[in-house]
């Protein structure tokens, strides 16, 4: 009765693994370690090193570990870089999802939680992003996640009248930060928190890209959500699927309010004790003023809540990074 976590050696996936274990759903991990770390996988959790593009390996893993459901976290997650590497992005995220679905069908596994992205919405001009908003992804990454959702939807339709119809849900979220375990931290070179941490550790000054946006302090406002809260929602979704309880096709894991980049910088200085005045650089092309999602549906069904303050997000991430 185990659950397979694809990408379970990565920053988010490793937290999902821990959340599953805490929920009494034994996890199994498959990861090619292209961005993950075997040391992030807890001791005693079965680990298979390999690519989700290897259909035979995925199916073998599903069968050997008696997997009953999959949480599909693996993917190429760098939206900005995906513009320069669209073919790689589509291979990893679209073909990877197709292969996982095919292996699940062959192995008789019929429950799936898909780690999607709020990038499927693009840059909507609304105060709060809701699940029914039109999908207008602005990068190959966002497009690949939306196509992944379509693949899952179509497979569910195709299997609806079979003995094992696919039951699924997709979780969409923006900026995942912090740490729920001091042995796991964000190693991405493209995310705000690790970028600032590395600057501070190197004695350099972090930068804000533009301070003339139409927001209260002039800097971008975004959803920042703690990785432990994200992981817990994945585990609740898996538990509901395992119990045969109804779920929506997709949920936003949103903060409802958002935080500005300047608020993040202020918290960084406050929590780390390293005083600094961030440099102000030019705007990045295409950056909208504000993107924040509601989490009402997820709060109703997945026990979703943004349980951490900005200082707690920074402190947990900083402590984990310094222990590395």
UniProtKB/TrEMBL annotation:
Pathway note: Carbohydrate metabolism; galactose metabolism
The entry's keywords: Carbohydrate metabolism, Isomerase, NAD
Superkingdom assignment: Bacteria
SUPFAM superfamilies named among the record's database cross-references: NAD(P)-binding Rossmann-fold domains (SSF51735)
Domain NAD-dependent epimerase/dehydratase: 3-254
Any one GO MF annotation of this record: UDP-glucose 4-epimerase activity
Top-level class of the enzyme under EC nomenclature: isomerase
Catalyses which reaction(s): UDP-alpha-D-glucose = UDP-alpha-D-galactose
InterPro entries in the cross-refs: Epimerase_deHydtase (IPR001509), NAD(P)-bd_dom_sf (IPR036291), UDP_G4E (IPR005886)
EC number from the UniProt entry: 5.1.3.2
Cofactor(s) essential for the protein: NAD(+)
Protein family membership: Belongs to the NAD(P)-dependent epimerase/dehydratase family.
Protein name: UDP-glucose 4-epimerase
